[in-house]
Design goal:
With 169 residues, the chain is an alpha/beta fold. Helices cover 49% and strands 18% of the residues. It has six helices and five strands, in the order H-H-H-E-E-H-E-H-H-E-E. It has a five-stranded mixed sheet, sandwiched between helices. The relative contact order is 0.17.
Length: 169
């Protein structure tokens, strides 16, 4: 599962050390969970179970890496006040507005970018689905506008074959 793992960590590190450390720990945990299932996730229930563990893991990571500062987790987790780092888990199908990338991106664009602009510095989106053409058509310009404010967004596709960066600015 750790295919391209080191390369991805180093590419993220060139943009943001803290985001790279967070990815490092989350990726290791996801790899372990996917590998323990002997070949990956078979259904939405297993994906949902993995997603439920992410807020607890992110909280543990934030205590070590961010000296106790919290991480916004979407969906779930720390929805309260804004924090410097946001981790999104888009573990459903691309078009799913509840669990997929499209719903996560819609939330980021319509709510998080507006409400957390002054505090947030970086966003890591872990996704199980990617549609390049739909991303370009619906979200790329909005992501680029957020980045122009000095922010960093990293989208990493997670599969049983490894990780790949789909977007990093």
């Amino acid at each position: 599962m750790l295919k391209f793992y080191d390369e991805i960590c180093s590419r993220i590190m060139k943009k943001d050390d803290i985001l790279a450390q967070i990815f490092n720990e989350l990726a290791a945990a996801l790899s372990e969970e996917i590998n323990s299932d002997h070949g990956g996730f078979d259904n939405q229930h297993q994906i949902d179970q993995s997603a439920k563990n992410l807020p607890k893991l992110a909280n543990e990571i934030s205590n070590r890496i961010l000296n106790g500062d919290k991480i916004n987790i979407y969906p779930g987790g720390f929805p309260g006040k804004c924090h410097s780092v946001c981790v999104c888990k888009a573990f459903g199908k691309w078009n799913s507005y509840k669990y997929g990338f499209k719903g996560t991106a819609k939330y980021l664009v319509e709510e998080y970018f507006v409400n957390c602009l002054k505090i947030n510095q970086s966003i890591l989106i872990l996704t199980f689905a990617w549609d390049e053409l739909d991303f370009i058509e619906k979200f790329k310009d909005k992501f680029e506008n957020y980045i122009k404010q000095g922010k960093i967004i990293c989208v990493v596709l997670v599969t049983i074959n490894g990780f790949s960066i789909q977007y990093l600015r």
